[in-house]
Design brief:
Order of helices and strands: HHHEHEHEHEHEHEE
CATH class: Alpha Beta
Largest sheet: 7 strands, mixed
CATH architecture: 3-Layer(aba) Sandwich
Distance between the termini: 41 Å
Structural class: alpha/beta
CATH topology: Rossmann fold
Strand content: 15-25%
Number of strands: 7
Helix content: 40-55%
Length: 234
């Protein structure tokens, strides 16, 4: 990637965002407060947030699971697509990040439908799974998630995907972010844990009998990356 390429990508993203996903005070403040708190600048771009919002609407999602909250920017985009009786559970490992997200989500007026669970995501997913099993024994199993957005540590991507399968239904949509890794995902000899985790997740999508999916490369303000989409089959 050259400086000239990045400037062109930034320019195109700015055009798309201004025209199709203009910022509002709530989203702008969420990013500003995340910066002030020292959170890493790895939130989705505005046009990517709008894509998540549209995918949730197209899916007709009533229950969403997000793995990786950060400052709550993507959480707000997703939660805004839910009906008033919808539910979004988001998992965040870092308590300080969760505090920032909690304030941003409350300011957006979404704290009644968003629940932040703090701790290692695999631990939180184990608890979620146990809750589903406990309810199932009482014939009152919680509704499965209609959409899962995975955007946490890449090492555990395949494990997160396996849990997503456990907690969804036929027809549910799973979105896995940051799968291109600047092109490094193609390196079969890589020892980078993030690459290994991402490749394992993509291979799981390709091989699992209950999944069908694809992956798309993207360029923009976030550089060269991409995402995978998978649909849960019967």
């Amino acid at each position: 990637m050259t400086q000239e390429q990045q400037e062109q990508w930034d320019s195109v993203d700015d055009y798309f965002t201004t025209l199709l996903a203009p910022a509002d005070e709530t989203l702008t403040t969420a990013l500003r407060d995340s910066d002030t708190a020292g959170l890493p600048r790895i939130a989705v771009a505005p046009n990517q947030g709008k894509l998540l919002h549209l995918l949730a609407q197209i899916q007709g999602a009533r229950r969403i699971l997000e793995i990786g909250t950060l400052g709550g920017y993507s959480t707000i985009w997703l939660a805004r697509a839910l009906p008033t009786d919808g539910r979004l559970i988001t998992l965040e490992h870092n308590p300080a990040h969760a505090d920032v997200a909690r304030a941003n989500i409350a300011r957006a007026g979404l704290d009644k439908i968003v629940e932040i669970r703090v701790g290692p995501a695999l631990d939180s997913l184990t608890v979620l799974g146990a809750e589903h099993e406990a309810h199932a024994e009482r014939a009152a199993r919680p509704e499965p998630f209609d959409l899962v957005f995975i955007d946490a540590d890449k090492v555990n991507n395949a494990h997160y995907l396996e849990w997503a399968l456990e907690l969804t239904r036929p027809g549910s949509l799973i979105i896995l972010d940051n799968v291109v890794r600047g092109g490094a995902v193609t390196d079969a000899t890589s020892t980078d844990p993030a690459i290994l985790g991402t490749r394992s997740a993509l291979e799981l999508i390709a091989e699992h009998p209950r999944l069908t999916g694809t992956a798309v490369q993207t360029v923009g303000t976030k550089g060269y990356d991409g995402f995978a989409l998978a649909r849960v089959l019967a």
